[in-house]
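WP5 quarterly update. Target: Cation transporter. Source organism: Acinetobacter defluvii. Length: 209 aa.
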Amino acid sequence: MACTCSHEPAPQKPNSKFRTALWIALVINLAMFFVELIGGAYAHSSALWADSLDFFGDAVNYGISLAVLGASLYWRATVALLKGLTMALFGFVVIGKSAYAYIQGIPPEAITMGAIGILALIANVVAAVVLYAFRDGDSNMQSVWLCSRNDAIGNVAVILAAVGVFGTGSLLPDIIVAVIMATLGLTGGYQVIKKALQERKDNKPVLTT
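Structure tokens (predicted):
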């Protein structure tokens, strides 16, 4: 009788500290998604709108990461691959939104934009500090760390853009920041995808008869 046996490495025991860190990051990102979604619409800011979508995507990714903590490296890498593709897709979406905002030509409300940017920065620094210890883990852990790191960098840029908008009355600083955030999404997604593909290749289940 033929049998199908998997010789995949045994699933990793869930890391309780990483699980706790993920829950903290999940709550922070979900809360900031609503704050920036409403604030971005009110302030007519492409950068805040883009950052709100990033917060939502991160919250979903943290939830997925929690779900696969006890899975084998192959399946954790598979989830990381999907997350990397999502990060890259986000980058392309933001570029499209920025082009649309530029055509519309409506400058954002700088005070609201700056205040929400500062709040988002504080939230992301907390999440990044919590997740910092896991930055050199597998592709799944790495993708989680990159999400928080990119968000913190993006928030600094949002604050600088708010200052630029306030000083010039132009929407260009907002557009420039949105493009920077898109670039972070594309480069971060590439890093995660590259590592995840290698881990899937190295840990692919072997079926025997």
